[in-house]
Specification:
InterPro entries: Dimeric_a/b-barrel (IPR011008), Rham/fucose_mutarotase (IPR008000). It comes from Streptomyces kurssanovii. This is L-rhamnose mutarotase. It holds the Pfam family rhaM. This protein has one domain (about 1-85): Alpha-Beta Plaits (2-Layer Sandwich), CATH 3.30.70. It contains 4 helices and 3 strands; from the N terminus they run E-H-H-E-E-H-H. The chain has helices at about 15-25, 25-35, 60-70, 70-80, and strands at about 1-10, 40-45, 50-55. Strands 1-3-2 form a 3-stranded antiparallel beta sheet, with no helix packed on it. It is globular, with a radius of gyration of 14 Å. The two termini are about 15 Å apart.
Length: about 110
Amino acid sequence: MQRVCFLLKVREDRLTEYRERHATVWPEMLHALSASGWRNYSLFLRDDGLLVGYLETDDFDAARAAMEATGVNARWQAEMADCFEALDGQRPDEAMKPLTEVFHLA
């Protein structure tokens, strides 16, 4: 199992909208994440917009590819893209760069 953690930056003027959208994630998106192997997926948002994501999966590259193959992911990423800073032309899911794990208490 892989533990994956990543950082993104939500625009401060879109924090409320970002929180509201994640309070009501589309059922189709939730199903796609689960079916694609995303487990124990959490997002943590700081008031300045720092977003920390964490998930567990058997294979992160395969889980990302499985989500890429869904239509719902493309729609979700298109709707969420304007909420983020510094995507450099990428979709939010493409900008998720895993951090290197340096410690884990098992």
